[in-house]
Amino acid sequence: MSVIDCQGMGLPVISPRLGWLAEHIDPELRFTTTEETVAPAERPATDHEGLQDHDG
After folding, report:
1. What whole-number distance in Å separates Cα of residue 20 and Cα of residue 31?
2. What is the pLDDT of residue 44?
3. DSSP assignment, residue 33?
4. Alpha carbon of 30 to those of 1, 21, 43: distances in Å?
5. 40 by DSSP, 3-state: which?
6. φ, ψ at 16 (rounded to 5°)
7. Among 3, 10, 38, 45, which residue's CB has the most CB atoms within a 10 Å radius?
8. Domain extent for 9
9. Alpha-carbon distance 12 to 29, whole Å?
């Protein structure tokens, strides 16, 4: 699925802070380092109310 498809379905999209894509992703769900990748990946999996904050 594309980023736009996922966001349109209300799914959070986690992405590297890179180029044009970074402009379309919630800042809390962007990462630069490998260590930063884990935090946004774990949060949506355990924080169901927080998921609603990042709907498309």
Report:
1. 14
2. 60
3. S
4. 18, 10, 13
5. helix
6. -65, 150
7. 3
8. 3-53
9. 8
> Which among 28, 1, 31, 36 has a CA at the least distance from the CA of 15?
31
Locate 35 and state its tokens. 């260590």
Q: Which conformational region is residue 10 in: left (phi greater than 0), alpha (psi within -120 to 50 degrees), or beta?
A: left
Q: How many domains does the chain have?
A: 1
pLDDT at 22 (0 to 100): 83
pLDDT in tens, 8-20: 888 888 888 888 8
Tens-place pLDDT, residues 20-56: 888 888 888 888 998 888 877 777 656 666 555 555 4
- Structure token digits, residue 38: 């884990």
The predicted structure's pLDDT at residue 37: 83
